[in-house]
Amino acid sequence: MPDSGGEPDVSVPVDMPGKRGGTGPVRPAVRAGRSDEFRFRVYTATVVTVGLLAATAVGLWLPFKASGDLWWIGLVLAVAFLLAEQLGINVDVRSGISWTISFTEIPLVIGFFVAPFEVVLAAHLVAGIGTLLARRVAGRVLYNAGAFLLEITGAFAVAGIVQHALGATEMPWPAALAGTLTAPLVSTLLALAAVRVLRRRMRISTALRLTGRILVVGFVNASVGLSGYLVISGSPRAWPLVLAVFLGLTALYWAYSDLLREQRDMEALSDVSLMVARSGQQAAARPASKAENSGEGVDIGEWATIAERIKDQLSAARVVLRLRLEPAEEMRAVVAGDPLPSEQSPAEDPLLRLPGAHVRHFRLTEANSDVRAALLDRGAQEALVVPLRSANQLLGVVEAHDRLSRWRGFGKYDVQLLGLMASHLATSLDNRRLLATLRHDAYHDPLTGLFNRLGFRQVARDPLRDHPSSVVLRVELDVFSTVSDALGYAWADRMVIAAGRRIRDALGHEVPVARLEGASFAALLIAYGPDQAHRVAERLRAELSVPYPVDRLTVEANAMIGYASPSVEEAGEIVDVDGLLQRADVAVRATRGGEEVRGYVPSMGQIFMRRFQMVTQFRQSLEDGQVSVHYQPKVSLPNRQVQGVEALVRWVHPEFGRLSPDEFVPAIEAAGLIGVLTGFVLEESLKRIRKWLDEGLRISAAVNLSVRNLADEEFPAKVVRALDQFGVPPELLTFELTESGVMSDPQKALPILRELHALGVVLAVDDFGTGYSSLAYLRQLPVDEVKIDKSFVLGMGTDLGDLAVVRSIVELGHSLGLTVVAEGVEEDVARDQLEAMGCDVAQGYLISRPLPEDRLEAWLQARTARSPGRQAHNVLTLLT
């Protein structure tokens, strides 16, 4: 049946034969739905009824001439019709058009001369129905019987009309020729009517082209048969010549058939490869969420179309594609044609356990007992089976059952075609699997198997647009860097895997979860309100905070969770997923001790924007003079001499006003600008020392270092260049650093500190007592001073515990030969206590607040006295 290009929306296979001589069975390889099946049954009943009425009418009209020779003539005609059917040449002109060239016109045209209507009709019915039964297409016998009736009835009706018109008493050859051409024309009209009944579209040009081909072939066959009969009847000894002409015509048909078959096979190979490639591209174009939910994003309907195409090409009753779409899953069966009577198990079925990648041809009459049983389970007389393999990996199996268009079954051309199709199909399927793997890797985290940031962005975009009440969670584990530094990245990775598993188990597998980086995760709660999201986040935080058993260790961890949802203005719009993740991250950063779950509010966004502006405007602020250095004096307690100052950075922002160092320094450090800030403070401090040296004063300056400075291998060289530039002795420069900063990465920090110490620069441990605070750590550090944290100094007057801590630090520092500096000295009592303990240096508001450079000079002049002596050794003594 010619295919107009439209796809029928059907499910039950329906095949219809056409004229048996010019075009033999015209089969629409379609699947009819229930309504179409009912329509076709009504159409079949109509064809049979009209055929019976027409045959009765023509039988009454045309006289029946009885003869004793009719029994063997009828038998010969039946055999001739049967041979003409079996010797048909199948030609698939193009995809969807099955055209069988047969020779039934030859016995039909001869029948007009040698037998009456009833005998020819009976011979044709016996041959046609017998062929259908031999091909096991009994489900269409009724329709074909009606078509046979109308073909022969129409042929004799037209021949009778022409005979009467010519006034002949015997059948003239024009009448026989006209009647013979009527049979394929009737068959074609019935087939075209069936196309309309099945509601399939066909272009008029296609229908006319098909009808023309049928009439041309019918005319050639009828002419050969008519010519041969007339020659032999006039000259009986001419039958070898007629036989030679007939064999030559048959050879031409076969040659034409082979040419068209090669063209058709190439088209089929191209079609199958393109179908698989296009379906793979469509799978790759699907969002990550759909690919996640359907394995590799494979649509079984696409494979059903491919199976249908192979079935049409092989003219098979059934094609089964058994595909392993994922490496770990069982094969799925996709059937085109007659349904399988039963499912087969690959482990037990001999047809599914074939070695190699070659096509095997099994016939029921030639098979062993196991193969015979497998064919009977399929309800098949023969089968072509070929495995789909790639690199010794079984991807699937293709089966084709029972060729319908020829009585002798599948031939070598079918075996070759299926082998080529299987090779193309295996390659395309392997490419699909590779593409699916690449796609999975692009959207998933390789460590945890969860989505990565790109995959989360893909999977979250549509739900956030369709469900504005959805919530994005951001989860941070605060122990990842500690575990990495202490135990190595392999142990930290184990914790990340365990945390990802806990999140997945706590939220359920239907909730999209992603690992963003490090120990940072994200999850999407679809259609959750703020209260629900908060409860879920609390429960999730509790799950994640349970200690982690890693090998033989148990690691304690804490989790902080922030969450955010689209604003009212974003409802129904394409939501910026990265923006929501950023808001949730701001909420995480807003968490405090005891409140580890926070929802995002706009004020947090303002804080974030404030930090963003600070970071982006910092360099310009340095150039514009908005950033300056203040100095807080340090005094030696025994002799009340000004020993040095601590350099403290200050920033007066034109929009935000005076900024606290606790606010902008962490932001600048996180942005990687701490080196710029340290360089600025160092340069300003060395300028100040140089001025004092020029005035005959030896006052040192202390500059605070960040952990990032201690990770810079070039930092000691920068310090050397700065000291040389301003001509400052290294002992007048002090670097202050915290214990936690050093011990966060001692392997990097200690070599830098040793280089600085070798230069003669003074090193001080700041905030001593709040970090590791152990003699073992302190002995590892090449330091000269310890600074007692001001929290202990401030509490000395009221807390005996703080007093004991301060006394212990002073004694510990002196035992190690270190200078001890006390911060936060604000009262005379504290100063006197420190002096009694033997503390070396005091710093705090009692002495002076941090002062800008001009006010520091005024303070020095007003509150200190210059001691006499050489200019290089002048000192300032605090006036009491």
From TrEMBL:
The chain crosses the membrane at residues 42-63, 70-89, 109-134, 141-163, 175-198, 210-232, 238-256. It comes from the Bacteria. Pfam families: EAL (PF00563), GAF (PF01590), GGDEF (PF00990). The keyword ATP-binding does not apply. Residues 611-864 form the EAL domain. SUPFAM superfamilies: EAL domain-like (SSF141868), GAF domain-like (SSF55781), Nucleotide cyclase (SSF55073). Residues 1-30 are annotated as: Disordered. PROSITE patterns: EAL (PS50883), GGDEF (PS50887). Gene3D superfamilies: 3.30.450.40, 3.30.70.270, EAL domain. Residues 468-602 form the GGDEF domain. Keywords: Membrane, Transmembrane, Transmembrane helix. This is EAL domain-containing protein.
